[in-house]
Design brief:
The complex is a heterodimer. By secondary structure, chain A is of the alpha+beta class. Chain A has 3 helices and 4 strands. The chains are: A alpha+beta, B mainly alpha.
C-alpha cells in the first residue's frame, strides 16, 4: 500500500511563505509524489509546531525547516530522502 | 580511505574560500577606483564641469556603484554571520537572564538574528512561552527591524561611518530603554489571553547544520535575495538624490525642519509613523533631507520612526497585544526616538 506524505507549509501570508508553498507544489509534482499539501496560516496551529520563524516546512508532523525559503534543489533533496 | 576523505574535504574548503577571496580582491580594486572611473565617464560625455546636470550625473555615476558594492559586501558578511544565529538559539540565550542584562542582550541579538517582520508574532509567542520577560522580548522586536544590514550599508555609504555608528548605538539605546520601561510598567496582563494558552508541544526542531561551505553559500544566497529585491529602490533613491544634488536649492526644507524649530523632531516622527518603508526606500530620502538643510538628528528620528514604528506592524501586533500595551509600545519608542533626535540636534 502506498503511504501518502502529508506536507504542510506554515506561514501567515508573507511573500516568502507563498513562494515556499508554490515551490513545494512544483517539486512534488515534478517528483510525482503522493502527497497532500496544505498551507497552514492559522497562527495558533503554527505555534503548535513550536516554529518561531516562518516559512516553515512540516512533513508528516515533523518540522524539517523553518525561517527559510528553500530552493527547489533543497526541497527535492528533502522529499527524496523521505520517500 | 579515511585519509583520502579528509584530503578531499580540505581541498573542498580551500576552493570554497578561494572564490570569496578572489571576489573580495576584485571588490577592493573596484571600490578604490570609483572616483576616477566616475570622472572618466563624465569626461567622455563632454559635459561642462560645474554645471547642474554634470554634477547631478557625477553624483549618480559615483554613488550607485559605491552603494551597490557596499551593499553586496555587507549583506554577504551579515549573511554569513547570521548562519551562526537562529531565533531558537537567541531564545535559549535569553532564557533566565535578569531583566536589564536581558534587555541589552536582546537588543544586540536583534541585530544579528535572522528576522522578518512577518515572523514577529510566532517569535513573540515563542519568547513568551519560554518565560522571557515581555520587556526583553520588546527590546528584541524593536532592535531587529530598526538596526538591519541595509540601514547600516546605506548610512555608511551615504553619510560615513560616524553616522552609521551613531545610528546603531542610538537604535540600541531606544530598544533597550523601551523594553526596560515596558518591563517597569508590568504589562504582562495586556498580552492577548490566547497567547498564554497556546502551548506549543516544544518539539525539538532539527537545527540546521552548517559547514564552512554551506555558510559561504548561504551568504551568496542572501546577497542574491536582498540585492535582487532592493536594487531598483536604491537606484531610484539615488537618482532622486542626484536630482536634488544638482537642482533643488539648499536649505529648501530647513524652514520646516531646522533645529531652531523645537517641534521639528516630534513632527518628523509623526510624519514617519503612517509611512511604511524599509531602510532601502527611506535612506535616499533621508539623504536628500540632510542635503537640503534638515538637521541630522531630525533626519535620523524621521528614519527611525519610519522603520521602527509602522502602522502595518502595529496592526500585526494587535493580534497578540491589547491596546494599552500597543499604545505604551508606540509611545515609549516614539519618546526614545525624540530623545535621540534632540540629542543630535544639540551636539551637532
Amino acid at each position: 500500500m502506498k503511504v501518502i506524505m502529508k506536507i504542510e507549509v506554515l506561514g501567515s501570508g508573507c511573500a516568502k511563505c507563498n513562494k515556499l508553498a508554490e515551490a513545494t507544489k512544483k517539486v512534488v509534482a515534478e517528483l510525482n509524489l503522493d502527497a497532500n499539501i496544505e498551507k497552514v496560516e492559522d497562527i495558533i496551529k503554527i505555534m503548535g509546531y513550536g516554529v518561531m520563524s516562518t516559512p516553515a516546512l512540516v512533513i508528516d508532523g515533523e518540522v524539517v525547516s523553518s525561517g527559510k525559503l528553500l530552493s527547489n534543489k533543497e526541497l527535492r533533496q528533502i522529499f527524496v530522502s523521505r520517500k | 580511505m579515511a585519509i583520502e576523505n579528509t584530503i578531499s574535504e580540505q581541498n573542498g574548503s580551500i576552493s570554497t574560500l578561494l572564490l570569496p577571496a578572489l571576489m573580495l580582491s576584485v571588490w577592493i580594486l573596484l571600490y578604490l577606483n570609483l572616483q576616477p572611473i566616475a570622472d572618466s565617464v563624465i569626461s567622455l560625455t563632454g559635459l561642462q564641469n560645474g554645471e547642474h546636470l554634470t554634477e547631478a550625473l557625477r553624483f549618480f555615476i559615483y554613488e550607485v556603484p559605491k552603494v551597490m558594492l557596499l551593499l553586496v559586501l555587507i549583506v554577504y558578511i551579515v549573511g554569513v554571520i547570521r548562519t551562526f544565529f537562529s531565533p531558537a538559539r537567541t531564545r535559549k540565550a535569553l532564557e533566565g537572564k535578569s531583566v536589564f542584562t536581558g534587555n541589552v542582550m536582546a537588543a544586540l541579538l536583534g541585530i544579528v538574528t535572522p528576522f522578518c517582520s512577518c515572523s514577529a508574532i510566532p517569535l513573540f509567542i515563542g519568547f513568551v512561552e519560554a518565560g522571557i520577560p515581555i520587556g526583553v522580548t520588546f527590546s528584541f522586536l524593536i532592535a531587529a527591524p530598526m538596526i538591519n544590514e541595509i540601514a547600516v550599508v546605506l548610512l555608511l555609504g551615504l553619510f560615513g561611518w560616524k553616522v552609521m555608528l551613531i545610528y546603531i548605538s542610538t537604535g540600541l539605546f531606544v530598544a533597550i530603554l523601551s523594553g526596560y520601561v515596558i518591563h517597569l510598567f508590568k504589562m504582562e496582563k495586556y498580552v492577548a489571553d490566547w497567547v498564554y494558552k497556546a502551548r506549543s508541544n516544544q518539539q525539538q526542531q532539527a537545527e540546521q547544520k552548517h559547514t564552512l561551505t554551506s555558510r559561504i553559500a548561504s551568504g551568496f544566497t542572501i546577497v542574491k535575495e536582498i540585492v535582487g529585491k532592493i536594487w531598483l529602490y536604491i537606484v531610484i533613491g539615488i537618482a532622486i538624490g542626484a536630482a536634488a544634488h544638482g537642482y533643488v536649492p539648499a536649505n529648501y526644507l530647513s524652514e520646516l525642519m531646522s533645529a531652531s524649530n523645537w517641534y521639528s523632531v516630534p513632527l518628523a516622527i509623526l510624519i514617519g509613523i503612517p509611512l511604511y518603508s524599509n531602510a532601502a526606500g527611506i535612506i535616499p530620502i533621508v539623504s536628500v533631507l540632510i542635503e537640503k538643510g534638515v538637521t541630522l538628528g531630525t533626519a535620523l528620528a524621521f528614519m527611525m520612526s519610519v522603520i521602527g514604528l509602522s502602522l502595518p506592524e502595529i496592526i500585526i501586533l494587535k493580534k497578540v497585544l491589547k491596546m494599552p500595551l500597543i499604545l505604551t509600545f508606540v509611545g515609549i519608542v516614539a519618546f526614545g526616538i525624540i530623545l535621540v533626535g534632540y540629542f543630535f540636534n544639540f551636539i551637532y
